[in-house]
Amino acid sequence: MKSIELRGLTHIYSKGTPFEKTAIDGLDLTIRAGETVALIGHTGSGKSTLISHLNALLKPDAGTVLLDGRDIFASKAAIRAARFRVGVVFQYPEYQLFEETVFADIAYGPKNLKLSQQEIDRRVRQAAAFVGLAENTFDRSPLELSGGQKRRAAIAGVLAMEPGLLVLDEPTAGLDPAGREDLLERLFIWRRATDAAILLVTHDMSIANRCDRLVVMSEGQIVLDGTPEEVFAHGDELVSIGLDLPAAAHIARLLRQQGVQVPQGIYTVDQLADAILALRGGKGGPAC
Ligand SMILES: Nc1ncnc2c1ncn2[C@@H]1O[C@H](COP(=O)(O)OP(=O)(O)OP(=O)(O)O)[C@@H](O)[C@H]1O
Ligand SMILES: [Mg+2]
To answer: What is the DSSP string of 79-122?
Structure first.
């Protein structure tokens, strides 16, 4: 995949009823091969609705989804192609494990692609290795795995499709800090080993700020789109739409409100430490 493009995307739930809700409202977004993009926004801002269009699970009420320039709803074959090229890992994907063995579960997608047994084997082993799932789990029932292992098996099933775009909705929700860190690092390693793009939906700013690009949604629209530095420079706007800031950006904002001259665009602890040390150096004494 070279790019996926949403043009004027609109999605309305329960159209024509008293419950009508415009969840996505004329939204434009392009994601290119090789990007790691975090999609952030408050509850109900439309993130899950947006990602369900990327592999044609939801059909837009207006606008188009272009995969390498072609409308994914143009034909049944185009829809099928989008489902194979765009891998979506929904929230708590472990509840969707249903095969008798872990191996069969991870192999489910590649089998649908009608690949040779040898190629299916290769993909299952490679995907399991990427997510850190040991091969001695392959013959077990998915139900026997721990929560963290189930999550990894479910993600491996999508990686085994070798998608051009991997979309993950809150992939680390409910994991302990070590498990969260390990899974995230593995996803980034997978990204670097392929020419794929990752779109990661998260509420966790410490995850978002490790992506190359942040796309911020509010009320079904994109309100900010840029590098973490660019986006976190809009601290007041983010807070006003109900988002948390990374801890370092939050402290920098509080310091600025107290009149301490720390620069905009700080979002990591190291940047904050440097800014405070620079102030001390600059003024020849403690700044705060
Ligand atoms: N199946 C549905 N029928 C009707 N309204 C829906 C449906 N799914 C979502 N909505 C509404 O559409 C809007 C966007 O919902 P969506 O689930 O896309 O938000 P989200 O950003 O993923 O939220 P969260 O962070 O809680 O996962 C919300 O107002 C939600 O109530
Ligand atoms: Mg959601």
So the answer is: HHHHHHHEEEE-SSGGGG--SSSHHHHHHHHHHHTT--HHHHHH
